[in-house]
Amino acid sequence: MELETMGARGEMASEVGHELNNFLGVVTGAASLLDLKLKTNDLAGAKNNLAVMLTNLEKMRNFTEGLMRQSNLRAPENTVIDLGSALREIMEFLTPQKRFIGVSARVEIPSAVVPVAFDSLQFQQLMYNLINNAADATRGQAVRAVTVTLTIDKSALLTTVTVADTGVGMDQDTASRVFKSRFTSKQDGHGFGLVVCKRIIDAHHGAITIDSAPGAGARISIAFPLSNKRPASPLTSPVEKSVTPALIRA
Length: 250
Known about the structure:
Elements: H1 2-39, H2 43-69, E1 79-82, H3 83-94, E2 104-108, E3 115-118, H4 120-137, E4 145-153, E5 158-165, H5 172-177, H6 193-203, E6 207-212, E7 218-225
Parallel strand pairs: 2-4
Antiparallel strand pairs: 1-3, 4-5, 5-7, 6-7
């Protein structure tokens, strides 16, 4: 029993470390750009990168506070958010990272507001994992591209977020196991990221499908119920509102 307890603690520690690394990756990428912007005297750009760093450090603090309140993934604290605005900002946070060098990353979203009841921090955790994995899957490919698409089905009262990549793809057996604990196809992976994704999706009454084949890339689609309320507030923190948004890489 003691060995099992130690194993469970070690697994949780690895899971927490994985999620914190996602936030740290964004902070590191923004810090690298901040140094470049200061050297070129681009103060507006530097201010934007500083805002991204502060925002993600605040998210790390919220994440760790949630862990201190509970021993596992914290319960969702849902508010109505606009998924379109959230996805734009998440892409702005992620694309400065080194893993996106040489990757064509774009986001396709409707002009209309897409209201969904979601824990904003957990939505970012979910998308950080999926988009980072998509970029990693394109390593070594002749064409490296990641596309995040948001669509609305008003008749079914659903919205779908799709993350597509031009990576190595996977067979049906692999696709059926990607959300299992400790499963990973990466040499340096540990399989916790997608487990967290599945928990977040389930907690928000979402449904996930994977369309992939070896050598043909992958499309991961997640459907969530639309809310009948307007978004309460933007996803960004107050410090980000005063800066010019970074351009999304085309």
